[in-house]
Write a structure and sequence with these properties.
Elements: H1 5-17, E1 35-41, E2 64-67, E3 73-76, E4 79-82, E5 86-87, E6 96-104, E7 113-125, E8 132-133, E9 139-140
Antiparallel strand pairs: 1-2, 1-6, 3-4, 4-9, 5-8, 6-7
Length: 142
Amino acid sequence: MTTGNTFENELATLIFNASSIVNIAINATTAPLTTLAVSLHTADPGEAGTMATNETSYGAYTRVAVNRTATGWAVTNNSVSPSTNITFAACTSGTATITHAAIGVSTTGSAKVLFSGTVTPNISVSAGVTPRLTTASTIVLC
């Protein structure tokens, strides 16, 4: 089964920009999610994984919350990109190679993953390195 292009884009704006889909879905009216959490991973969290699966653990790392608005996410032609660079805390200790990123619902714990994908090029993290995902980072929905 495939999804129509218009609906793909509407679904992306519902999830990333909190915009309703006329006659189908509205953003939650009671306690809606206002941000999405972005995490960095040293391997694919997988479809059955959580945001904690293979999540990096370098010194000072934390997930980053990004607003569910057009100022947080650009949705165009069935793809999603950050509207501004997503900058993570600078590494204070340890090393890691970031190969994947995930978008989910919480900045802590084993929250569900909504989307995940490969980070290209991979990010080599060591003391003093500040990882970031740029506006060129794209999530293609279909």
